[in-house]
Design brief:
2 domains; 23 strands; alpha/beta; seven-stranded mixed sheet; Aldehyde Dehydrogenase, Chain A, domain 1; 15 helices
């Protein structure tokens, strides 16, 4: 357990973790993190400013250019990450509760996600053991060439607030296993668990300089990604922010990977089972309070079964328990902050003004939850795909049902989006579902809610970003390829 936990249970950090050491911050600015449920203080941490970023990047630069970490064998680096995995697993319950206190995600979700973080770290360790870090090519004449995968250098990992531990893990673990030094920039809303993540890596034995954590606002985040000492940017967040980062990276010829927004469609075929559909939408659309880039926020339903499907989804949406996110019975907690609540509420009002039929939910907070940042889980029917509520990412528990004429029309509507992150099809014929999946332009897709193999790549098409996470593809984002001609075989 962290020595920075106050007897009250708050996490109290008075220094910044830079290069693996606790150092005095360059300013007196502090983030106070409060629960979006009841306003209770979850903790405090210094707010990093530009001078702190300079120190963090300088420490990472020295660690990469001169330190032992990139020069260790992959097996030696894996030993350190394996120790981190054990430390992190031992704190899974505490970290889940911390994340819930910070961002309002229901405890069932944060607990599940912490377990996934641990399992995925184990997966990266398994893959790293036989990853082709160096391999030899020999042509028919006997000419030999070594192909090496070497670390990129200093990585700036910028993560969001909605699934912070998972977003950190999927970047930091492969980056570190590949031999990079990392500066982690967590979101102000979830700065505490970001600092604790870095603290655990230091406890696991990362050498000096290899990890820094700089909680900061948007302006300082932009300064970090544009820093000349950074070689690679790994970002998860909004498409608008991703465009700015891509522009900076292109101008400086930096490596960059972007996991951005989504407006994913669930295509319901005429033979779909409504019970399976309801469960698929429960978890595929409303998990994590609907604050998920992969959420299935557009349901495409055939006109032949349209009202039946709308009724089933209306019953589901109205049954979701909203409330205290620390209660294991709660399915949906509050939005992360007041501004996010107001944003979601404005989209609900927009849907009404656009002429969509409000099936359940609507404006205002659920009864008895007016003091937190709550919205009512909302379902709209009779939605045209040109409406704003069908085209723009709302990032809250709002789902729209769009009618289609035939399967070709459904695929057309699914693809009629600036995004291309996720999607699903529900059908009694899984093989036919795969045919539909091949026609939809997204980076990931599911048939009847089936999960992906965790060694499979994750990422988006179009405005949902580029680059891939997880599996062997996750390592590729943090390595450079070098070919060394070594001469003829003897």
């Amino acid at each position: 357990m962290s020595e920075h936990i106050h007897p009250s249970g708050r996490y109290e950090y008075t220094k910044l973790l830079i290069g693996g050491d606790w150092v005095e911050p360059a300013s007196e600015r502090v983030f106070e993190i409060r629960s979006p449920h009841d306003g209770r203080v979850a903790g405090h941490t210094p707010e990093a400013v530009r001078e702190d970023v300079d120190r963090a990047v300088a420490a990472a630069r020295r660690a990469f250019d001169e330190g032992p970490w990139p020069r260790m064998t992959p097996g030696e680096r894996a030993e350190v990450i394996a120790r981190f995995a054990r430390l992190h697993r031992a704190e899974a319950t505490e970290l889940a509760a911390l994340t819930t206190a910070e961002n309002g995600s229901a405890i069932w979700f944060t607990t599940m996600l912490q377990n996934l973080v641990n399992d995925r770290t184990d997966d990266f360790l398994r893959l790293a053991a036989d990853h082709p870090w160096e391999e030899e090519l020999v042509d028919p004449s006997g000419l030999r060439t070594l192909v090496r995968r070497e670390p990129v250098g200093v990585v700036a990992a910028v993560i969001p607030w909605n699934a912070p531990q998972q977003s950190a893990q999927v970047k930091l673990v492969p980056a570190l296993l590949a031999g990079n030094a990392v500066v982690l920039k967590p979101s102000p809303e979830t700065a505490l668990d970001g600092v604790r993540f870095g603290e655990l890596l230091v406890e696991a034995g990362l050498p000096e300089g290899v990890i820094s954590v700089v909680p900061a606002d948007r302006e300082v985040s932009e300064y970090l990604v544009g820093h000349p000492g950074v070689d690679k940017i790994a970002f998860t967040g909004s498409t608008a922010a991703g465009r700015k980062i891509a522009s900076v990276a292109t101008g400086q010829l930096k490596r960059v990977s972007l996991e951005l927004g989504g407006k994913s469609a669930a295509i319901v075929l005429e033979d779909a089972d409504l019970g399976r559909l309801a469960e698929g939408i429960r978890y595929g659309s409303f998990s994590n309070n609907g604050e998920a880039c992969v959420a299935l926020t557009r349901v495409l339903a055939p006109r032949s079964r349209y009202e039946e499907i709308v009724a089933a989804l209306g019953t589901l949406t109205g049954s979701l328990k909203v409330g205290d996110p620390s209660d294991p019975e709660t399915f949906i907690g509050p939005m992360v902050r007041e501004g996010q609540r107001d944003r979601v509420q404005s989209y609900i009002q927009t849907g009404i003004e656009e002429g969509a039929r409000l099936v359940t939910g609507g404006p205002g907070a659920p009864e008895g939850l007016e003091s937190g940042y709550y919205v009512r889980p909302t379902l709209f029917a009779d939605v045209d795909n040109s409406m704003r509520i069908a085209q723009e990412e709302i990032f809250g528990p709002v789902v729209v049902v769009i009618p289609y004429e035939d399967e070709a029309d459904a695929v057309r509507i699914a693809n009629d989006s600036p995004y291309g992150l996720s999607g699903a099809v529900f059908t009694a014929d899984p093989e036919h579902g795969i045919e539909v999946a091949r026609a939809v332009r997204t980076g990931v897709f599911s048939v009847n809610g089936a999960p992906r193999h965790w060694d499979a790549p994750f990422g988006g098409f179009k405005n949902s970003g580029f680059g891939r996470e997880y599996g062997r593809h996750g390592f590729d984002e943090y390595t450079e390829l070098k070919a060394i001609g070594t001469g003829l075989t003897v």
